[in-house]
What we know:
Blueprint (H helix, E strand, L loop, with lengths): L3 E9 L4 E9 L4 H8 L1 H4 L10 E3 L2 E3 L10 E4 L7 H14 L13 H9 L11
Amino acid sequence: MAEQLSIEVVYGLPHKQSLISLVVSSNTTVEQAIVQSGVLNLYPDINLSKNKVGIWNRSCKLNDTLKSGDRIEIYRPLIADPKEIRKLRAQKAKDEGRANKITGAKVSSDDQAETSQTSPDEKGNTES
């Protein structure tokens, strides 16, 4: 008789999350456990050919075999690229004067005060 493993399958949306505990045989794959859990019936939007999966926050493949205590996580696709969002936020800060246009560093209140108090002659501009 094959050894039985206790595992969990989790999936979450912003408004609803599911954690399904089940017992499977020792040679069960990630994909087989997901199907056995019934989570695909609860969430028809899950597409295993598109959604990534992991075990305890580590990416895995659908054909990986499970160990007792594993928690299979089904991940939703990202809505936006985090790198692109960061670039847009940085550009907005520069445009609004909250960041230095050259270095990208935060502009301190002392820097802003100096800039506004400096006359054209002090900046090295001479108009004759």
